Amino acid sequence: MKKLIGKILVAIIILAAVIGIMVLNKQDTTNEDNTLVVGLDDSFPPMGFRNEENEIVGYDIDLAKAVAEKLGMEVKFQPISWASKEQELNSGNIDCIWNGFAYNEERAETMTLTDSYIKGENYFILKSGSTLKSQEELKGLKIGVQSGSIQAQDLEKSEFGKNVTIIEYGDNLSAFMDLEIGGIDAMFCSNIIGNYLIVSKEKDYNTVPSEGITISKGSVIAFKKGNTELRDKVQNALAKVTAEGTAEKVSEKWFGLNMALDIKER
């Protein structure tokens, strides 16, 4: 009889432990599900970068916070290596890439994307005093780009790219600084970051439009391939904050003009 009671007590203890673990796991999952982990390059002003207090700030940061608030979620900003962004997404280390992420067909095939939420185009930045006026005149020169960026991919694939020396940098700011000291002859980037760098650094730099390299369709938010549920939740919330005028206010804050697109709900 005592042995039977002992076995019953052991069974009860084991069952209680199992239930406890299940409850804890459920709580952990709930917490994870209620946090939107945003992967970004934290040296990509004005979309996402660190200020003098080492805080991550920027256009996409403000927009992501507004969207998370609309969804009733917490938001966590996770700096990643831009060259490894797809691996970070596919591994589940981040929920999305939200950092001035330009649309192209290749990305649309490997990831689930929102519609474009901010407009932009790509161009070349040249130092003040440069007499070059066209892309054709840049042939044979050294062009800097951010490693893993759409600009780097498109420049390398283009016919024009075969006629220049492409130098890749970990971030756009490093390329811009090397341009300043003459390490490269031009920098190829989005006008979103280009305009910000020129104005914030108070540099009288020249720009040259790109021709036949890439056609910008604006920036999107990227999710793991097939994760349409989270994509739709985020896009619908973004559509709401855009309709309420929040995106325009954030754009005015960081760019001095409204570059936000009228994104629609799905």
Short synopsis of the structure:
Helix content is 42%, strand content 22%. The protein is an alpha/beta fold and 266 residues long.
Characterise the protein shown here:
The structure is a single chain. The protein has 9 helices and 13 strands. The chain has 266 residues and is an alpha/beta fold. The protein folds into 3 domains: 1-33; 36-119 and 217-255, 3-Layer(aba) Sandwich (D-Maltodextrin-Binding Protein, domain 2); 122-209, D-Maltodextrin-Binding Protein, domain 2, CATH 3.40.190.10. The strands form 3 sheets. It has a 5-stranded mixed beta sheet. A 5-stranded mixed beta sheet has the order 10-9-11-8-12, with helices on both faces. Strand 2 (43-44) and strand 3 form a beta hairpin. Helix 2 packs across helix 8 (228-243). The longest helix is centred in the first third of the chain and has 32 residues, at 2-33. The termini are far apart.
